[in-house]
Amino acid sequence: MTTGPVPAPPSPAQVSPAARSLADPDTPFAVVDVHRVRRNAARLRARADRLGVALRPHVKTAKSLAAAALLHDGTPGPVTVSTLAEAEAFADAGYRDITYAVGIEPHKLPRVIALLRRGVTLRVLLDSTEQATFVAATAREAGIALPAQIEIDCDGHRGGLRPDAPGLTGIAGILHDAGCLDGVLTHAGESYFCYTAGEQRQAARNERDAAVAAADRLRAAGLPVPTVSVGSTPTAHAAEDLSGVTELRAGNYAFFDLVMAGLGVCDLDDLALSVVVTVIGHRPEYGWIVTDGGWMAMSRDRGTAVQPQDQGYGLVTDLSGTLIPGLVMTAASQEHGTLTARDGAALPDLPIGTRLRVLPNHACATAAQHQGYHVIDGSGGTQAPTPGIEAYWPRVTGW
Questions:
Q1: What is the mean pLDDT of the chain?
Q2: In terms of Cα–Cα distance, which of 316, 271, 321, 275 is closest to 297?
Q3: What does the alpha-carbon distance between residue 56 and residue 251 come to, in Å, rounded to a whole number?
Q4: CA dihedral sign, ordered 287, 293, 299, 300
Q5: Are 298 and 360 in contact (CB under 8 A)?
Q6: Nearest CA to 223 among 274, 165, 182?
Q7: Sign (positive or negative) of CA dihedral 77, 78, 82, 87
């Protein structure tokens, strides 16, 4: 569990001279292109500004203070977290406006109260009378406002209440009576299966409409709803009108990945995260190239398997980031990755010791396999065969 300050990432001058190139560190390791992170961040920041809503990035993808700093242009701003360890680490770094967007349970409330006493506005999420009751009781006992948002189910049914659920106003009333009602929140999880721009725009409209309908219903009952929060990476980039919404959330957009590229939300050139692996063997009788990067490096996520183009465990580039046509990571054991050619492509001649980069299906899952990121800057256009490492960004760890 992370309870103290997370060290700031080293500056370029602090990176070991022995690790100045992607050809140097032992593989497998994660790489982030800081130029692409900045570009991705600026794109969504500009969109939120055009839509007239606050942007509350979800930091669970990168789990990195250095990466998060780029999402608000260098200044700590509102963030969303998926664990209390993240909340504590970001609070230690000066973040004071945090939403913990996973349903709350009683055992975690002492850590929530501790952060509130430090002057951090930490919102919790709930969708039941039981949760509202113990949140309200804890707030009264502690003598402190404990802001809570009611989760609204707009499509995926993972959690939340439908906007017309009979219990919605009762839950809100319990929170309001204890000074805890902060608003409503929803997430369009089904947008990850919307394969056209039109479907994504409709998912964004549905997400907005569900949240706004719930807020309107509570206001009609005389209850305040200061926050109406929506967002997913696909809908955040597809929304055309967020009237009635106060804030937009997204997380994957910082790095993007093959699932988002498969949906058309981004291009392959936007993917900021990759994993460097080394060729360790060949099985020509099977058409395989074997690397030292298995599912421990890439994760088991096969998110593109349900898309029109299955990308296996990831697409393969050379060290400069240039895609190797037709080469795909199609199988993985714990520490071994199997690369094969598809669509009639010839299997490239890659001797043992050759280093490659693999683009991930799901950036959040792949990033979670690593303790941090070697950072390169691809802003110079055509890169050298082995891009220089600018810095190292540690990840927030623990739960």
A1: 93
A2: 275
A3: 9
A4: positive
A5: yes
A6: 182
A7: positive
